[in-house]
């Protein structure tokens, strides 16, 4: 579905300062990402104060470069979309305030975009024929959700984690194994040569936490994470070595099986035949492979964003921003970023 709109999109929710120009929600005119990963690596994770400062330093250059690459002037745009929630509040404020200033000086409408809806929208760029309704698994560093995407701006939560996110669990276990940040990525690389059955982990039950999540299904990753950390610590205490490649392959297997089985079960319960993966963790090679095999076996259609679009970027903000703009979801100068916000709610209402 085309919307005939050219959007400048800005992303600064975590550790990437990004800007992009996207036409019609599907066509990428420019894509600029300034990553802070090298800076945060020294600390083993994202340091919020450093992230905000680095966004503030980078944002003017990143946005100018995106406009230059697109070969457009501000007056040729229809709107400015910006990640407004959820994320690190200081980091989000840099992008939101920059976008507000731009809108004030140009008169362009401001379109706040939910970060997790953007992750789902990355699929509209990688898979041009994809349209709602579908079921989406969103697995990132801070969130693990299964959502029913009824329409481009109509979301319903089917399941969410009551404790850690999948990416967070992988990051913490990877860190305990001495792997660099971002742990999920390095665990995936180390797992390539490891044995998947070398270590055993508890398989969390499907469908727990119904009351605490308010949904029919719920995720819990903290038990899995704690079991892994306990095995690493007990090996250290005994002076025995953990085989990092085998440990990564086994832990990755447990996390991916849990995510996949939960998603397949949600598809069965909701009756949706199209499944979409989204978020940084969906770059995981084993998860992509496993979801592919399970969807194939169940005759479900599976869509995956390209690996390059799984992580944070502004192209996906432009894709979702187009649909939010079409739905009339624009905000005034009194709008503010939010550290947390329900994906099913509209940021502008
Ligand atoms: O979506 P994202 O870039 O940022 C958030 O919105 O959180 O996700 C970041 C998460 C991190 O936990 C990182 O370790 C994980 O995605 N990640 C991966 C892979 N690449 C990044 N996890 C598993 N396998 C990967 N290949
Ligand atoms: Zn993200």
Outline the structure in words.
Mean pLDDT is 95; it is low at 208-215. By secondary structure, this protein is an alpha/beta fold. The protein folds into two domains: 6-120 and 310-326, Nucleotidyltransferase, domain 5; 132-304, 2-Layer Sandwich (Nucleotidyltransferase, domain 5), CATH 3.30.420.40. A hairpin with a 2-residue loop joins strand 7 and strand 8 (154-161). Helix content is 43%, strand content 19%. It has a six-stranded mixed sheet with strand order 9-8-7-6-10-11, with helices on both faces. The protein is globular, with a radius of gyration of 20 Å. Bound molecules: 5'-O-[(R)-(carboxyoxy)(hydroxy)phosphoryl]adenosine and zinc ion. The site of zinc ion (ZN) has 6 residues, from helix 4.
How many DSSP-defined strands? 11
Into which percent range does the helicity of residues fall? Answer: 40-55%
Average of per-residue pLDDT values: 95
The CATH architecture of the largest domain comes to: 2-Layer Sandwich
Look up the CATH topology of the largest domain.
Answer: Nucleotidyltransferase, domain 5
**Rg measurement, Å:** 20 Å
The low-confidence runs, each spanning 5 or more residues with pLDDT under 50, are 208-215
Beta strand %: 15-25%
CATH homologous superfamily grouping of the largest domain: ATPase, nucleotide binding domain
Q: What quaternary form is this?
A: single chain
Structural class, from secondary structure content?
alpha/beta
Assigned CATH class of the largest domain = Alpha Beta
State the end-to-end CA separation: 24 Å
What letter string, H or E per element, gives the SSE order?
A: EEEHHEHEHEEEHHHEHHEHEH
How many strands, what sense, and barrel or not for the largest sheet?
A: 6 strands, mixed
Number of domain units: 2
């Amino acid at each position: 579905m085309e919307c005939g709109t050219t959007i400048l999109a800005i992303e600064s929710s975590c550790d990437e300062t990004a800007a992009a120009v996207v036409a019609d929600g599907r066509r990428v005119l420019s894509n600029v990402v300034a990553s802070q990963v090298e800076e945060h690596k020294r600390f083993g994770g994202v340091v919020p104060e450093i992230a905000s400062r680095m966004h503030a330093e980078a944002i003017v250059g990143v946005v100018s470069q995106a406009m230059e690459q697109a070969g457009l002037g501000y007056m040729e745009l229809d709107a400015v979309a910006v990640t407004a929630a959820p994320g690190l509040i200081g980091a989000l404020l840099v992008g939101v305030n920059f976008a507000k200033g731009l809108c004030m000086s140009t008169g362009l409408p401001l379109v706040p975009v939910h970060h997790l809806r953007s992750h789902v929208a990355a699929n509209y760029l990688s898979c041009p024929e994809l349209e709602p309704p579908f079921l989406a698994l969103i697995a990132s560093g801070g969130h693990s959700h299964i959502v029913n995407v009824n329409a481009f701006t109509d979301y319903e939560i089917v399941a969410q984690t009551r404790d850690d996110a999948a990416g967070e669990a992988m990051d913490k276990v990877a860190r305990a194994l001495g792997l660099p940040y971002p742990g999920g990525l390095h665990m995936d690389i180390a797992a390539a040569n490891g044995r998947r059955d070398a270590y055993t982990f508890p398989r969390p039950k499907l469908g727990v936490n119904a009351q605490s999540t308010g949904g029919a299904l719920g995720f819990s990753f903290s038990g899995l994470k704690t079991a892994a950390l306990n095995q690493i610590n007990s090996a250290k205490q005994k002076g025995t070595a953990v085989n990092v490649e085998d440990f990564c392959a086994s832990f990755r297997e447990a996390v991916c099986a849990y995510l996949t089985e939960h998603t397949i079960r949600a598809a069965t319960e909701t009756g949706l035949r199209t499944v979409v993966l989204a978020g940084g963790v969906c770059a995981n090679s084993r998860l992509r492979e496993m979801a592919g095999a399970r969807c194939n076996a169940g005759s479900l259609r599976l869509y995956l964003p390209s690996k390059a679009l799984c992580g944070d970027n502004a192209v996906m903000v432009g894709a979702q921003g187009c649909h939010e703009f079409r739905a009339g979801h624009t905000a005034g100068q009194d709008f503010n970023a939010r550290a947390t916000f329900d994906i099913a709610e509209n940021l502008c209402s």
